[in-house]
Design a protein that fits this description.
256 residues; seven-stranded parallel β-sheet; alpha/beta
Length: 256
């Protein structure tokens, strides 16, 4: 059990990549708070994990609202006595289209979910990690994207938000190192099974659009939730005790 007994929050875990991460961490002994803005989705995932013998509780919260994130962190500390890891997976995108056609409302939403949520998680989770017994610290895993490293037209403002996540993660790692708090990020490539796939593609994910994305991945397949979850498991585990400020590309060599 690679994360046995660790108190872990996974945001946006009511489906897709977040669900995969929550399941993988719980399967390795983590005590997981399954967060999603959709209460029923969070409960579905948490209930399924419990049925499989894992430790998981659902908690509905909007990661763009400070009071909600404060309550989310407090729930983990109340249930488990500490917070060891915060996996910031919740994400959003505007539809793939020319940059000047993205509305201000969509722009604000993308930056609120993808970037402001990192700020709010730090604001509330860092004090909890600093208060952990025996000065054991904690860790953040921020889910960014290959879009933050190799941007392409059509997703300009989304690309920028994920670039911000990458740089912010590195800066957090430098600043929080003395507190024994590690910060890393993961850059997944396109996953057609997420709820946002059609938005990334700019419409229904037909064979033509699938082929366009697939052609850019040298290993010849899309990423899966399990691919990303395995990377998250490593970064949360003590195996990565000296890994901080790193970004792991889970992308089949897309960014080479």
């Amino acid at each position: 059990m690679r994360v046995q007994g660790k108190s872990i929050i996974v945001t946006g875990a009511g489906g897709g990549i977040g669900e995969g991460i929550a399941r993988r961490l719980a399967g390795e002994g983590g005590r997981v708070i399954v967060n999603d803005i959709r209460a029923e989705a969070a409960e579905r995932v948490a209930g399924s994990i419990r049925q499989e013998g894992g430790d998981a509780q659902a908690f509905a919260a909007d990661v763009t609202r400070s009071d909600d994130v404060r309550a989310l962190v407090a729930e983990a500390v109340s249930r488990h006595g500490a917070l060891d890891a915060m996996v910031n997976n919740a994400g959003w995108t505007h539809r793939n289209r020319p940059m000047l056609e993205v509305s201000e409302e969509d722009f604000d939403r993308v930056y609120a979910v993808n970037v402001k949520s990192i700020y709010l998680s730090a604001l509330h989770a860092v004090p909890a990690m600093r208060a952990n017994p025996a000065k054991r610290g904690g860790c953040f895993v921020n889910i960014a994207s290959t879009a933050g490293l190799r941007p392409r037209p059509g997703l300009t403002w989304y690309n920028g938000s994920k670039g911000a996540v990458i740089v912010t993660s590195k800066s957090m790692a430098a600043e929080l190192g003395p507190d024994n708090i590690r910060v890393n990020c993961i850059n997944p490539v396109f996953n057609p099974d997420t709820g946002l796939a059609a938005e990334f593609a700019g419409g229904v994910l037909d064979e033509e659009r699938r082929g366009k994305f697939l052609a850019s991945i040298p290993l010849g397949r899309f990423s899966t939730a399990l691919d990303v979850a395995n990377a998250a498991l490593y970064l949360v585990s003590d195996e990565a005790a000296f890994v901080s400020g790193a970004c792991i590309e889970v992308d089949g060599a897309r960014c080479v």
